[in-house]
Amino acid sequence: MTTDMWIVFTLLAGAIALFLSDRIRMDLVALLLVVCLALSGIITPAEAVSGFGEPVVVMIAALFVVGEGLLRTGIASATGSWLLRVGGGSETRLLLFLLPVVALLSAFMSSTGAVALLLPVVMSLSRRSGFAPSRLLMPLAFAALIGGMLTLIGTPPNIIVSGQMRSSGLEPFGFFDFTPVGLAVLVVGMAYLILIARRLLPNHPLAADERQGIRALYERYNLSRQLHRLEVLPGSPLAQKTPAEALLRTEYEVTLIAISRSGGWLPSLIPVLANTRMQYADQLLVYADSDRLERICREQALTALDCPASAVSRLEQSTGLAEVLLSPDSKFCGQTLKQLRLRERLGLSVIGLRRNRECCPLEFASTELAAGDTLLLAGSWERIRSLSQSRELVVLNLPPELEEVPTHGSKAPLALGILGAMLVCMTSGWLDNLSAILLAALAMILSGCVNLKEAYRSFNATSLILIAGMLPMALAMERSGALDYLVRHLVGLIGDSEPLLLCASLFLLTSVLSQFISNTATTVLVAPVALSTAQLLGINPEPVMISVAIAASTAFATPIASPVNTLVVTAGGYRFADFARVGIPLQLIALVLTLLLTPLLFPF
């Protein structure tokens, strides 16, 4: 080996060791690698930082903007609500719906793009369902990679092997020639991810946030079981009355938060203000002790309904919470909740009170507030946002869910149209992927679906730096001859062995290389060697080339194997070893299925 090869192999081994140690952040390791490559002389300093201008990095950054547009217009939240509804609060059922969706998207567009689009959906879903993102994001990434195996355009390696066949005067692969093997890997892979991998996945909670989320605030104020849903029956005295006129709080100690109208749960919820009037068939969302419900239902002609997880999730989209503190000089001190009339002043209702770190019962007519009391307020997110303008209350905690509330909800049809146009342009070939995604990101900003501040904030700097920093390694391996050295020596060990053993060896070679360098670069180098070897042995090159293409998409064992994996590292809180623990068995599954099916579909 040459000196340059030794340098490249040493840098690669060092980077892998640092990734495995988890002592230095992955993005910092990537930057260190960039500096070392620039100083090595194997590639120029300009080439060492060229990853930051690579189309894939620019494309991912633009996709973050598109995804932010879907988040800010409420589409991500609505999709998450649908998944939560059909998933029934079960992690298994959620994955059963989520994984085929991302795989189908990846079959016709970039797998990186599919994951970037669904990332805000899954994070929103995770926050509302209570499932840790680490339980959902790695299966999402792996299903996207498998989805690329389904069609000719699903992933660059498929196109490369087909082009290699054409350039050698052979019949190129058809659009769905990869589908049978890819579909088998998808079905078995989904079964593995849902039934087995879930036991191997880490259970990291959401990224640390100093603010408490809505569910945590419920627990803090002992309100977890106090949310109820009541229906106004015909003849109810509540009809056409406001909450104050109905004496809901002063007489029954029941706090009305929201109303669902039009006879169903799906219509958008109406946050309750001081002048909001109830109607027959309204569904009322109230906070109250269970023992108080029987009386109000009996006297006011109401009936109690179930309050499923999907109902609670929908409430959280339109109605928020905030924890506030009464300062010593607040004019609210010494007044009862009835005297304060906060619903009239702020459009918010008090649903919880803590004094001296202990929860206190809420008696609206008699409980006097004191300095240092903390109140839990509920109301529309718009009113929650305006709390910062209050001089009498100090805002202690605005839940992180506030950031997921649509700020441009009226633009949802525009955002859907932009997303649809982007997908059509990408799948039809009217525009290249980069141009289509950049235009979509620009359209999201110009149309008002996302503003510039939100667009800049959407960039996941850790993921972008990690991807950009690792891309030059492929160039260094190619420039130094290290990649060619590995391929030719490993293929040389195969010799004139059995065709099935040739496919297995090439699969393992391609799969291992794809864990550390671009699967596209790996396929570019391995494909011609695989084709030449098959022709030399006098066997049909189709099963050999299919094996190489499928193997290139099994980038499951490291977080740097694919931008798809890198995208979910930070959000899922994953470590380097997490990918190996879950990904290596999936690689072996893909290997076995490929060796079983490929010779049947494309005989040697």
Give a verbal description of the structure.
- With 604 residues, this protein is of the alpha+beta class.
- It has two domains: 5-206 and 424-598, no CATH class; 212-398, Alpha-Beta Plaits (2-Layer Sandwich), CATH 3.30.70.
- The chain is 57% helix and 9% strand.
- The chain has helices at residues 3-21, 26-40, 45-48, 55-72, 75-87, 91-108, 111-129, 137-147, 156-167, 179-195, 214-220, 248-252, 290-300, 309-318, 337-340, 342-346, 381-385, 412-428, 433-446, 452-458, 461-480, 482-494, 499-514, 519-537, 541-552, 563-572, 576-601; strands at 227-232, 255-260, 269-271, 283-287, 302-305, 319-326, 349-355, 358-359, 374-380, 393-397.
- Strands 3-2-4-1-5 form a five-stranded antiparallel β-sheet, sandwiched between helices.
- A hairpin with an 8-residue loop joins strand 2 and strand 3 (269-271).
- Helix 5 crosses helix 6 (91-108), helix 5 (75-87) runs antiparallel to helix 14 and helix 23 (499-514) packs antiparallel against helix 24.
- It starts with a helix and ends with a helix.
